[in-house]
Amino acid sequence: MLVDVHDRSISSHPLAGTAPRTGDPVSDEIAAQTLLASAKDQTEHRVVIDMVHNALLPYCSYLDWEPEPSIVTVANVQHLGTRIEGALSDPPAHVFDLVRLLCPTPALGGYPAEAAISLIQEVEGFTRGNYGGAVGYFDAKGNGTFAVTIRCAEFSADRKTARLFAGGGIVAASEPLLELAETQAKFQAMLSAIVRP
What we know:
Elements: E1 3-6, E2 9-12, E3 15-20, H1 25-37, H2 39-56, E4 60-65, E5 70-73, E6 77-81, E7 84-88, H3 95-102, H4 106-109, H5 113-123, E8 134-138, E9 144-148, E10 152-155, E11 162-165, H6 176-194
Antiparallel strand pairs: 1-2, 1-9, 2-7, 3-6, 4-7, 5-6, 8-9, 10-11
């Protein structure tokens, strides 16, 4: 979850740092423990947590996060996740203004943001469309919930083809082949949702 605002309560649950799942409980537990112990993944996660915290803090009277990340399990991968919770200052910011502050997070746009986004635009070779944005809702009071559009597909007008998006956070300790495998694992959720046997 990118950000959730209800009255003056605010929370975010950033995810960064990923390991594939096999479906075997023993293998998945070993992968989870390896992920928790990985200096590379902890660094990747910490960059995102620091950015989210620092972006939200000026709008909060109180903001804190869990001392250690936990494992967040989804169908085909598991992530490091850290809950950030607090109270908005008075008058509270509108959730949509907070979404604009947070997008894109370093998990999608890199850090420092300006230099990373400029490099991505120069070398990536395609436009991302809605990938890396946010989807959610908000009400007239400024409450709402938004998630990052991190696994998504863009269908052609005739609905016969789809362009899928997934990626990985790159840090100094990243290994290209492992990042490729991670990205391929992330694609599996979308592939299984839209490809019929």
